């Protein structure tokens, strides 16, 4: 026995399936976006580490210059 569905029910089901497909596609796109943001975060963390290293080197240079200035003043 074959069951006949009303055209309204068919349209509603097709609409539901389309929405379900759109949600699945959006989840995939959001996953890709999340991956891009994670990569950006990794790059920013790496840049932060490099900047901290540069800042540390600059502090050491400044300390060495200040010590050299003190020694020059003592010699003079």
Taken from the alpha-carbon principal axes, the silhouette is: rod-shaped
> Can you give the helix content as a percent range?
over 70%
How would a crystallographer describe the biggest sheet? none
Q: How many runs of DSSP E, i.e. beta strands?
A: 0
Give the overall pLDDT as a whole number.
93
| Proportion of residues in extended strands | under 5%
What's the tally of helices? 1
Distance between the termini: 112 Å
Protein architecture, described:
The protein is mostly helical. The protein has a domain at 31-76. It contains one helix and no strands. The protein starts with 6 loop residues before the first helix and ends with a helix. The mean pLDDT is 93.
In a nutshell, what does this entry contain?
The protein has about 80 residues and is mainly α.
Question: Helices, strands, pairings?
Answer:
Elements: H1 7-75
Give keywords.
single chain; 76 residues; mainly alpha
């Amino acid at each position: 026995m074959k069951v006949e569905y009303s055209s309204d029910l068919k349209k509603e089901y097709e609409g539901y399936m389309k929405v379900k497909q759109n949600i699945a596609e959006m989840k995939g796109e959001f996953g890709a976006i999340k991956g891009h943001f994670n990569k950006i975060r990794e790059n920013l963390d790496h840049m932060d580490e490099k900047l901290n290293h540069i800042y540390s080197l600059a502090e050491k240079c400044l300390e060495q210059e200040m010590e050299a200035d003190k020694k020059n003043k003592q010699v003079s």
